Give the backbone structure.
Amino acid sequence: MTKPNLKIILAAPRGFCAGVDRAVQIVERAIEKHGAPVYVRHEIVHNRYVVESLEARGAVFVDELDEIPDDAVVIFSAHGVPKSVPAEAHRRELVYLDATCPLVSKVHREAERHHAEGRDVILIGHAGHPEVVGTMGQLSDGDILLIETADQAEAIQPPRPEALAYTTQTTLSVDETADIVTILKRRFPQIAAPHKEDICYATTNRQQAMKDIAGRCDALLVIGAPNSSNSLRLVEVARQNGCENAMLVQRASEIDWISLADVKTLGISAGASAPEILVEEVIDAAKARYDVTVEQVQAEPENMSFKLPSQLLDQ
C-alpha cells in the first residue's frame, strides 16, 4: 500500500540546552572518576529517558540526603537547591558536586544581592517547582514573595512597596512573564529589575522557534516530560500561536497516531531536557506510517556551553 504523505516541520533550536548538557556530563564524569554508585538528589533533569540511562550506568536518584550513606558522592540537580542542602552535605562530610545550571545560580545571586541591598524580592515562578524551591531557599523564610499569575501581581501587598526587586524562574513563558512584569512595574514604579533577563536563552529561543512554526502545523508534538516546565510552556506557546492541536509526549510510544490521521503537516519540538535521540525516534515512527518529508526551521542559533566543576576536570 502507498503510504500517505506527511510533512514534518522541525523547530530549531530544540532539545538539550547547555545547562542540561553540563548536568548530564557531571553525572557521567563523576561515575567515571569515583565509580558506581553515585547519588543524585532529585532527577538530574526532568526526563525519564535521561534518568534511566544514567541509572543503567550507576547513578542512584534519591529525594533527600538522608537516603544517602556516609562517604558517598552526591550530585545536586540542574534545577538548584536551597542553601540548607549543601550545608547538610558539608556537615556530613559528603563529597558533593553541584550541577545547578549557571543561569539558575545567577538568579540565586541576584536574590541575595537585592536582599543585601535592603530590598524585598518578588519571585515570578511556579510553586513547588524544584527551581523555585531552590531559589526561595537562598534566603530565610518570608524573604522572597512568590507570585504565579497576573492576578496575583495585581493583588500582592508587599510590606515595603518602595523597596522591591523581582526575579523569575528561568523556564517561564516569555509572553506571560512580560505581562506580569508590566503589572509589577505599573504598581511599583521603583521596583528593581534583573541586570539581564532571568528567563534563560534556551527557553526564549525554543519558544521563539515554536512561534515560527506553530501557524504552519495541523498538529504539533513537544517531546518532553510532564514535570518539565519548559516543555509544558512550549505546548502553551504552540496553542497560543496558531496550533490548537499541540500535545506533550515523552517518546514515540505515547503518540496516538489515530488522532493524527488527518494531519498533513506535523510540527515537532523538544524541551530542553529531551535528548535528540527521542526526536529521531518520533521521526522514525512517523516514517513507518507515512511518506515523510522533513523541513527544519531555524530560529536563533545556539553555541552556549558551560564549564564543568573543577573537581571533574583532568588535572
Residues 18-34 form the longest helix (17 residues). The mean pLDDT is 96. The longest strand covers residues 5-12.
